[in-house]
Amino acid sequence: MKCELCSSNNVDRVIKRQVNGVEEELFVCNSCAIKANSGYSASDIAGALGQGGEDKGFPQVNVFMDATINIAAGPGGVAGKRCPVCGFVVTKNSSYKNLGCPECYKTFEKEIFDRKLADGYSGKRPPESDAGVEVVALKSQIEDAVRESRYADVFRLKLQLEDAESRKKGLGRPKGE
Amino acid sequence: MRGSGLSKRPGIVLWSRARLFRNLKGHSFISSDTGDQCVSGSDGLRQQQDRKSILKEIESAVAELSDKKKMKLVKLSSISDSKIIELYEKGALSVYHKKMVNDDSRGIITGAGGVVYAMVNERHHLVLQVLRPGFQLERVWNEVDRLDDLFGSRLKYAWSKKFGYLMPDSECCGAGLDVTVNVHLPGLILMGEMQEVVSAFGAVGLTLDAEISHDVFIEGFGQLLRISNNMSVPDSEEVFLRKIERAVSGLVLQEAQAGLRALKDDRTREMLYNKVVCSLAVLKNALIMERAQSHEEISWLRTGIAMGLVEGMTLVQVDRLHKDIWSSNFLLSFSGSFEEAVQHVGTTRAAVLRERLKDVKVNFM
């Protein structure tokens, strides 16, 4: 039987975990058990998760929770990742449908991007984006140019503004974005 | 869109709506399952505090805009039950937000004439919206886009170059735009041609469904259907809106042709007459009329009017009647308690229908 985490090595041990209050068994190899627990030995994890005697648990609850989460996260390469702001963690086969906060997008950037299979965002940009800032700046420059009767500049700036507004709406090629 | 000629004509497209979903930087998302903010521990109080601070942040932005747009933020908990139902029936309040009436960390942004510009702390921190009668996609988009720019220059949206506007559901991040068009398609339904239409719309990323009370009160009854992109915007917003506009224009043409075919075919014509006659009889004689039944029957009456089978009422009048029998109209005008008013809604609605339809009759050709 192959390890349920890496699917390549043979199973060496059984670890247990709690999922929604129900105890579940996971058949894993030694190296996965060690990899998944942030430096603690596989026997420690198994102990902490209920196998090998209840008196063998970790002193810190957080470490215990991390180990549980790491194992639950599975072989997708996200084991151990947790949003530093909201504490959101992914579980095995996570669909990223209920993220905790905007920071989660930075933490799980690669995983989310891979799932979306998209070329990136091509829609409207907020005022604080590069194009948005450029629009505000150009509008102000146009006002100055009109006030100082620099009509050639007004014409040139208006063309630039059209281009920037188009990029802000996501219609043009993003400039430097 | 400007040249389509469909915009204000009452007929197949009843209304168009655009909503923009925005979340703010530095705050946790609101969970779509429970309506609570994402749990990062067991501190529920902290989450409510966070929602309150979002409300405060948005309130400051609204205060800056109050001169320009006469905007104000109203907490849901301070709105009366009858008013909540009215907003819901108008499509200004989502079914989700309607359930949160007692939560003082949620609210709406209103403007002159009672228009609701946005919902605050719905499933997203800020949901900007514009709804217009008829087929006015370009207009609703331009208006909601302007609102977005106004708020975007005062609030820090959660946005990234790679993903666009960030949402709790990673599948929905991007433009955060939801476009909905409400259509009345009796011809295609009678002719059994809806399956092809649904498939064709699915191919361009649009869904066509009749899910009752999914979001707006008046949809989903009879032959009234909802076309929506379900927040999926594969291109830039304006390019995508043009695609929807083309798809809906094609649908309007198909519906008109299907209506003509339905009248030419003996079997469907007989079936149609029967439905219209029965619905009119029920509407003209009922003593108690519940909401769902009234919309179903009115939908058939509307079909009869659209196909020239009914005389004494126009499409504009039937659409007006449709709105006049909203529960909120009766609840707001009733002088007694809310509970008493609720009991009287069915009988009052039936009385209004009997009165307004007394001269309407089926025109047998």
Terminal-residue CA separation of chain A: 48 Å
- State the separation between the terminal residues of chain B, measured CA to CA: 37 Å
Radius of gyration of chain A, Cα only, in angstroms?
A: 26 Å
Order of helices and strands of chain A: EEHHHHHHH
Shape of chain A: rod-shaped
Beta-strand percent range of chain B: 15-25%
Question: Which characteristics define this entry?
Answer:
heterodimer, A: 177 residues, mainly alpha, two-stranded antiparallel ribbon, 2 strands, B: eight-stranded antiparallel sheet, 12 strands, globular
What topology does this entry show?
The complex is a heterodimer of chains A (177) and B (365).
Chain A: E1 13-19, E2 22-28, H1 30-35, H2 42-48, H3 61-73, H4 104-107, H5 109-116, H6 130-147, H7 151-168
Antiparallel strand pairs in A: 1-2
Chain B: E1 13-22, H1 44-69, E2 72-75, H2 81-90, H3 95-98, E3 107-110, E4 116-120, E5 126-133, H4 137-152, E6 159-160, E7 164-165, E8 177-184, H5 186-190, H6 194-203, E9 207-209, E10 224-228, H7 237-264, H8 266-285, H9 291-306, E11 310-311, H10 315-324, H11 327-333, H12 338-356, E12 361-362
Antiparallel strand pairs in B: 1-5, 1-8, 2-3, 3-4, 4-5, 6-7, 8-10, 9-10, 11-12
Helix pairs in contact in B: 2-11, 8-9, 9-10
Walkthrough of the structure:
Chain A is mostly helical and 177 residues long. Chain A has helices at 30-35, 42-48, 61-73, 104-107, 109-116, 130-147, 151-168, and strands at residues 13-19, 22-28. In chain A, strands 1-2 form a two-stranded antiparallel ribbon. By secondary structure, chain B is α+β, with helices and mostly antiparallel strands. Chain B has helices at residues 44-69, 81-90, 95-98, 137-152, 186-190, 194-203, 237-264, 266-285, 291-306, 315-324, 327-333, 338-356; strands at 13-22, 72-75, 107-110, 116-120, 126-133, 159-160, 164-165, 177-184, 207-209, 224-228, 310-311, 361-362. In chain B, the strands form 3 sheets. An 8-stranded antiparallel sheet of chain B has the order 2-3-4-5-1-8-10-9, covered by helices on one side. Chain B has a two-stranded antiparallel sheet with strand order 6-7. In chain B, strands 11-12 form a two-stranded antiparallel sheet. In chain B, 45% of the residues are buried. The interface between A and B is large, with 36 and 43 residues.
